[in-house]
Specification:
This protein is an all-alpha fold and 141 residues long. It is 77% helix and 0% strand. It has one domain.
Length: 141
């Protein structure tokens, strides 16, 4: 099986990664806070939001809404997935991030940039499980 990369999609990924990097660096430099989305979101359920947390979550929602308004289509596999299954997957990811004390954004983007040993271990675990899952789904099941 060969993988063909669409140059436009690759440019979008690079631009998105650059924006994410700049946003997380700005949050750390200006607020001294790590941009761990699960931690930010779970504060909504617990002790409430501070202004920057509300802005962060609203910015995520606005980006999705803006993409939809611009006519950006989800990948075919995602578009074909039933909404109830997407909701279940989201709940399981939320449970996993709470159980694992962090998410891919907090550990993978911010923790790795700070050379955190704990984040390095977390990234090795979730990337290893992700690779195993893809292998099992594509080649075994």
């Amino acid at each position: 099986m060969s993988i063909i990369l669409d140059p436009i999609a690759l440019e979008d990924c690079l631009a998105g990664g650059l924006v994410i990097g700049m946003a997380t660096a700005a949050l750390l430099l200006l607020n001294g806070r790590v941009a761990g989305i699960s931690g930010i979101f779970f504060r909504l359920l617990g002790r409430g939001w501070q202004g920057w947390q509300a802005g962060f979550i609203l910015g995520l929602l606005a980006a999705g809404a803006g993409a939809a308004l611009l006519g950006v289509k989800p990948p075919p596999a995602l578009a074909a997935t039933p909404p109830w299954l997407l909701a279940l997957a989201g709940l399981l990811v939320g449970f996993g991030t709470k159980l694992g004390n962090g998410c891919t954004s907090g550990h993978g983007v911010c923790g790795m940039a700070r050379l955190s040993p704990r984040s390095g271990a977390a990234v090795l675990c979730f990337m290893g499980i992700a690779m195993l899952t893809v292998f099992l789904v594509r080649h075994v099941l």
